């Protein structure tokens, strides 16, 4: 069995469910201890960061002789819940060239591949440093990567999330916002006193739907297309026989580069002011919540070309440049000034009941990361 397959299996067997997803779950403590030991035995300098209690990130650094470029490989060690899963989620199984288990695809394969790739160059006499960052909490708030960039930097970074061999050079961001329509509580019989916050929310929902359709009609970004807007949750009312005091909808606006929390807030305020202008009875509050920036790297950046060259030559196929809708840790690295991209294994079933990664892909990606390190850090 190859070293990388053995390591991927060992990582899958360690429960590392994110405790902010499942109350009382194992978290990253045990997997971080295992990786620390592995890194030490392979000659890395090891640093443990703890952005929150019992939520460790492990960073291994392979020091170069000096004067070269530093490359960071970044992968998360947490997983989503173990169940539902077909079979034992913590017992890695290889069947027909596929490695099954919770986290096999998302993303213990990527972590194993980057660790083994870096270890292979430990005696290569490189000038630059290699940093392998095994971060916590990607599945919830990315505490790990946001904290990592306060302590480490690099000249380029690869996030080794599974990309099915596509080279991801852009992804969307998002902005959450609460819109509360303010009503007037009153007895259900007192139409003369009450103001129905839930019914007044109807106008907001109609406008939200229209704004989403408008956004979708304009593809502004070559890889990401357009932004979008949808309702996430809605709450309101005190009881059957009362006029509702308030009604709150939480909106999610997915953003493309150029769209910021400020532009989204202005867009939503214009929407709400439009309703207010037509109905003086309408009162609202708007509060922008969690935001995550979109990410992109210039397709002409030399690190994109270097990654694409090694990936396509070792895979023997074209490796397309892509943009994706979901948010990832790439943006945390990029917003700290590290040119970053995402490239990784082939498989399926992230967050699903049957999750697997291709064993052949796991081994190819290890070779690709190794080739990139050797050239970039030479
Ligand atoms: Zn992931």
Straight-line distance between termini:
30 Å
Integer average pLDDT? 97
Helix percent band: 25-40%
Number of helices: 9
CATH top level label of the largest domain:
Alpha Beta
CATH topology of the largest domain: Aminopeptidase
Question: Order of strands in the sheet with the most strands?
Answer: 1-2-6-3-7-17
Extended strand count: 19
Sum up the overall morphology in one term: elongated
The rounded Rg comes to: 24 Å
Low-pLDDT runs: none
CATH level-two architecture of the largest domain: 3-Layer(aba) Sandwich
Q: Could you name the CATH homologous superfamily of the largest domain?
A: Zn peptidases
User: What is the total number of structural domains?
Assistant: 2
Q: Profile the largest sheet.
A: 6 strands, mixed
Class from secondary-structure proportions:
alpha+beta
Give the DSSP E fraction (strand runs of 2 or more residues).
15-25%
Structure description:
Helix 1 (3-12) crosses helix 3, helix 3 crosses helix 9 and helix 7 (302-315) packs across helix 9. With 378 residues, this protein is α+β, with helices and mostly antiparallel strands. The protein folds into 2 domains: 3-171 and 294-376, Aminopeptidase; 173-292, 2-Layer Sandwich (Alpha-Beta Plaits). It contains 9 helices and 19 strands. It binds zinc ion. Zinc ion binds next to helix 3.
